[in-house]
Amino acid sequence: MKIIQNTLSSDLFELCRKEFDIKLEKNEWRSSSLYWNPSLTRGINGSTLTSFTSLDIRNAIKKEISPYIPECDIITQYYVWQSNSGISLHGDGTYKFGATIYLNEEWHHDAGGWFIWKDKDKWNTILPTKNLMVLNDIGEEHLVTRIASDISYPRCSIQIWGRE
To answer: Which of 101, 103, 162 is nearest to 137 (CA)?
Structure first.
């Protein structure tokens, strides 16, 4: 797992946040409870909402993260991690890599939503931090702990996958 601080430029980060906020007001979201494999929500009773980024945002993200990823097509989606949502231990399947960029200005350690991964025989954790990217380019198993039920604003991220 690679951890990259301040992944996106300030301008692109703000463009992503603006597009994310605009999408929140539109009917453009899918629920994890409708299309995720049930193994991904074992022990999780909340729902995560997903929506594709615009093509312009996807292309700008690809350009800025290109030093860290292999050359390939990418998929980029916004994720809204609502109360009681999370994702069970899993790998990223057939993708060349999976990555997360955190969009929240801050995230409290008691709010859940910790990213946990297994590196050989050792478990590691990361608290979501503004503009930090977690890059899984060697297929490590990982999960997101359940989001607390009393959050005032959801955990927000951009999920990126590299296509074969």
So the answer is: 162
